[in-house]
Amino acid sequence: MLNSITLPSPAKLNLFLHVNGRLANGYHELQTLFQFIDYSDEMSFAVRDDGNVCLNTPIDGVANNDNLIVKAARLLQQKTGCQKGIDIELVKRLPMGGGIGGGSSNAATTLMACNLLWALNLSIEALAKIGLELGADVPIFIHGKATFAEGVGEKFTDMEPPECTYLVIHPGVHVGTVDVFTHQDLPRDTPKLAPTDLDMTKVGNDCQQIVCDTHPQVEKALNWLVEYAPSRMTGTGSCVFAAFDSASHAHQALLRLPSSMTGFVCKGCNISPLHQAIKCIK
Ligand SMILES: C[C@@](CO)(OP(=O)(O)O)[C@H](O)COP(=O)(O)OP(=O)(O)OC[C@H]1O[C@@H](n2ccc(N)nc2=O)[C@H](O)[C@@H]1O
Ligand SMILES: Nc1ncnc2c1ncn2[C@@H]1O[C@H](COP(=O)(O)OP(=O)(O)O)[C@@H](O)[C@H]1O
After folding, report:
1. Interface TM-score (ipTM) > 0.85
2. Terminal CA-to-CA distance of the chain, rounded, Å?
3. Ligand 2: which residue has its CA nearest to atom 25?
4. Residue located nearest, by CA, to atom 5 of ligand 2
5. Is 104 annotated among the ligand-binding residues?
6. Which PANTHER family does the entry mention (predicted)?
């Protein structure tokens, strides 16, 4: 019986992001293409018999009770009546509030790991439904395949975009998702696309302009990156990315990055590194 496990908790990019409308509950209807990247936090889990959920590596500025990791494990206990607990260690690499989904990914990895270690045998669909209660982006990390997502991000049509090499830049600012979605100037009326009609040359990120207006550092990062390749923001920001024709060209550009920004080179993955790792264990 498996008692402990170490898993990656990868980031995602929104290769495009359209806002199609606003629902009565204030949430927005979106269309987006999610792709995972091979740049991840690392999470280790070990079963406890006393029922406690212990995150032994707290994140600065995030109380453990507010941490999506702890919330995910407790929600799973509550949904299943499981009496077991869990010790969790996190190595944080993903910038927070960067639109690359670190918190949501950590929650998804926790749900997947506890499902295995507590021998709950919940399906991916059941875990994704539980994950949606924690955040709109959690289900995609449980789904684990690059996908065209609709609704608030829970209706999926799987796709296989090219697994490009990306340079991802963090402009050194945090952008709050709520601030973007409550901004009066956010365009909210982009017509819906049929997934089969998706043409990547004709789509963009509807949140990008207002984030550039409110956070000039994001615009600066986009303008720096566009000298090398077409650049775009992911999610509600603040990270921006561009596809490069080789890892060495991306690393050469990274060496010239202004000191106010940080960045990393990664590769797009149409199967999440989390799911690749779990497949190797099973
Ligand atoms: C828009 C995306 C695209 O990937 O942005 P990023 O957060 O990744 O940048 C995500 O769907 C975000 O997902 P997530 O970060 O899990 O959002 P949640 O915690 O569920 O919601 C945070 C807040 O964003 C707003 N929100 C979120 C999702 C959505 N479809 N409509 C919204 O209006 C709501 O105000 C909500 O209170
Ligand atoms: N495990 C976690 N990792 C990162 N952020 C978390 C976590 N738990 C809660 N949060 C909160 O969620 C916010 C958004 O984090 P994150 O998911 O990294 O950004 P984004 O949604 O922009 O991709 C953070 O600023 C933090 O306050």
Report:
1. yes
2. 12
3. 97
4. 103
5. yes
6. 4-DIPHOSPHOCYTIDYL-2-C-METHYL-D-ERYTHRITOL KINASE, CHLOROPLASTIC
Domain boundaries, the chain: 4-159+270-281, 165-267
Please state, in angstroms and rounded to a whole number, the distance separating the CA atoms of residues 115 and 120.
5
- The residues near 101 (Cβ < 8 Å, ≥ 6 apart) are 11, 12, 94, 137, 140, 141, 235
Q: Is the CB of 99 under 6 A from ligand 2?
A: yes
* Ligand 1 within 6 A of CB of 135: yes
CATH topology assigned to domain 165-267: Alpha-Beta Plaits (3.30.70)
Minimal CA–CA distance to 154: which of 87, 97, 218, 104?
A: 104
User: pLDDT tens for residues 70-129?
Assistant: 999 999 999 999 999 999 999 999 999 899 999 999 999 999 999 999 999 999 999 999
pLDDT tops 90 at residue 26: no
Ligand 1 centroid, distance to 163 Cα (angstroms)? 25
CA distance 227 to 172: 19
CA distances from 47 to 52, 83, 106, 108, 124 (A): 10, 11, 17, 17, 21
Helix, strand or coil, per DSSP, at residue 249 = helix
Report yes or no on whether pTM surpasses 0.95: yes
Ligand 1 mutation target, pool 68, 177, 179, 232, most atoms within 8 A of CB: 177
Q: 4-159+270-281 is classed in which CATH architecture? A: 2-Layer Sandwich (3.30)
